[in-house]
Design brief:
heterodimer; A: 266 residues; mainly alpha; flat; B: 290 residues; alpha/beta; Rossmann fold; 6-stranded mixed β-sheet; 4-stranded antiparallel β-sheet; 41% helix; 22% strand; globular; ABC_transporter-like_CS (chain B); ATP binding (chain B); ATPase-coupled transmembrane transporter activity (chain B); Energy-coupling factor transporter ATP-binding protein EcfA2 (chain B); cell membrane (chain B)
Chain lengths: 266, 290
């Protein structure tokens, strides 16, 4: 159905970005998201955009595929842009139509905020595009281990996360299968009055819930049968390891950040 | 209704890094009233094929004709609902589609959507319930209280209640006990003959194919590998083994028998009893020559 939506989608590959330690990626993205808000000039925006586009190119994921996959986000970006054009009243008047006045400040603000928004979305989707959900949860579990000291159930949280991530594609498949089966029995999900379409969701949701609960029970049983018990003393199959490439990437990102602050000073 | 595929390709998630061809250059013709078995290894494109039959998906390239309905990549019939009311599909594990409060309501769901009158629906349910081997007491029960086998039968009844002209079955007996498998296949075969249906059966079971089908299509990696009468296609041991399929047990037996005793017995879809008679006869004749 929504095959073009790429949020949360993983695209397998073997590029540097794919092979980076997930903790490196999460840390860099965390700081990138913060530093996006420090950009205030053409040059600083340029540096950040260059960094984001270069990373995208390295991943070898077709840019067109990513841009198309962000369709719902595009609406939001365009909406923000239009809002800024009409609401901001700074700078000189560029264009006048009856009582409407569009100011130069509005256009600049609009472009800046939209770009900021776009960079945020692009970089964060690069994380999920190049990192398997399992790697992400492993990284989060590892990065939160300090919280264990205050008895925060980090392992359980990570387990919950990985289980729910693991079952998203399964549920999507299930949804598609059931909606096809019901469409074959004459349900019309796409056309007709809204009231009818809302009613058409019931034959989809009921079987979906039934199978989700059944699946949860089976999973719990299978885990118990194999003697699963939480965090304490449990060894890992996938060990996270920081390698020299991670340091290099940190250094490059550090240069980007320094560049950003240099442009702020001058 | 006739079914015709003309050079059909189907590509999943076209124009994305995940694009993958499920069906490639597939052409065949199924005349109205035939019982066709579609056989292939997992991932050979069987399930993709059947989704074309009621317009759930449309071919990426090529044409599909179902009776007067024509499906191409950029053109779909105006009345999709009518196509779906004439082509009934029993999907794999159809019990997953049950959702109503009672068995009767669930069976009535399909025909109601297609605008069948209440009175007619009640009549249809009365006919179908014994045909699928359920008792009428179950009608007011919740489908979720039933056993797996009963749920399967309710789901099948829900498709049959639409009274389709083409019946598409995607491994309808998977996961049932042997007795149930036989009962359900016999029921479909009965219905096929009585109602003069066109039946498309997707199956892994060579035994079912040889027993019920009058035409067999073998798929491999999305393309047509073999096609023809079961007694012609299903006897080609070497060709079938190449695509990870086996000949039906009966044919395997005949080959082993010939090897051991040097007595060829041609396969012409005999029953086990007929075959026993033929073997006895052949052995006797061989004995009298010595």
């Amino acid at each position: 159905m929504n095959n073009s939506l790429i949020i949360g989608q993983y695209v397998p590959g073997n590029t540097i970005v794919h092979r980076l330690d997930p903790r490196t990626k999460i840390t860099i993205i965390f700081f990138f998201v913060i530093f996006v808000f420090f950009a205030n000039s053409v040059l600083s925006y340029g540096i950040l955009t260059l960094f984001a586009i270069a990373t995208t190119l390295i991943t070898r994921i077709p840019l067109r595929y990513i841009l198309k996959g962000l369709t719902p986000v595009w609406f939001l970006i365009i909406f923000t842009f239009i809002l800024h054009i009409f609401v901001t009243k700074e700078g000189s008047v560029v264009f006048e139509l009856f009582t409407f006045k569009i100011y130069s400040g509005g256009i600049i603000q609009g472009i800046a905020i939209s770009l900021r928004f776009f960079l945020l979305i692009l970089v964060t989707s690069l994380l999920t595009l190049t990192t398997t959900p399992i790697e992400i949860t492993d990284a989060i579990e590892d990065m939160l281990h300090l919280l264990k000291k205050i008895k925060f159930p980090v392992h359980e949280l990570a387990l919950m996360m990985s289980i729910s991530l693991r079952f998203i594609p399964t549920l999507m498949q299930e949804t598609e299968k059931i909606s096809k089966a019901q469409a074959s029995r004459g349900v019309d999900f796409r056309t007709g009055p809204v009231k009818e379409r809302i009613k058409a969701v019931v034959p989809l949701l009921v079987p979906l819930f039934v199978s989700a609960f059944k699946r949860a029970e089976e999973l719990a049983m299978a885990m118990e049968a194999r003697g699963y018990q939480g965090g304490e003393g449990r060894t890992k199959l996938r060990q996270l390891k920081i390698e020299s490439i991670d340091f290099i990437v940190f250094i490059i990102f550090g240069c980007v950040v320094i560049g950003l602050f240099v442009t702020r000073i001058y | 209704m006739d079914i015709t595929f003309k050079n059909v390709d189907y590509i999943y998630q076209e124009n994305s890094p995940f694009a993958h061809k499920a069906i490639e250059n597939l052409s065949f013709h199924i005349p109205s009233g035939s019982f066709v078995a579609v056989i292939g290894h997992t991932g050979s494109g069987k399930s993709t094929l059947i989704q074309h039959l009621n317009g759930l998906i449309r071919p990426s390239n090529g044409e599909v004709h179902i009776g007067d309905f024509r499906l191409t990549n950029d053109d779909k019939p105006k009345n999709m609902k009518e196509l779906r009311s004439r082509v009934g599909v029993v999907f794999q594990y159809p019990e997953h589609q049950l959702f109503e409060e009672t068995v009767a309501k669930d069976i009535a769901f399909g025909p109601e959507n297609f605008g069948v009158y209440k009175r007619d629906i009640e009549k249809r349910i009365k006919e179908i319930i014994p045909a699928v081997g359920l008792s009428e007491e179950l009608l007011e029960r919740s489908p979720f209280e039933l056993s797996g086998g009963q749920m399967r039968r309710v789901a099948i009844a829900g498709v049959l209640a639409i009274k389709p002209e083409i019946l598409v079955l995607d491994e309808p007996t998977a996961g049932l006990d042997p007795r149930g498998q036989k009962e359900i296949m016999e029921m479909f075969y009965d219905l096929h003959q009585k109602e003069n249906l066109t039946t498309v059966l997707v199956t892994h079971s060579m035994e079912d194919a040889v027993k019920y089908a009058d035409h067999v299509i073998i798929l491999n990696k999305g393309t047509k590998y073999m096609e023809g009468k079961p007694e012609e296609v299903l006897t080609q041991q070497e060709a079938l083994n190449k695509v990870q399929l086996d000949v039906p047990e009966m044919i395997e037996f005949l080959y082993a028998f010939e090897k051991r005793f040097g007595l060829p017995i041609p396969f012409k879809r005999q029953s086990v009893k007929q075959l026993a008679d033929e073997i006895q006869h052949a052995m006797k004749e061989a004995g009298s020559h010595e």
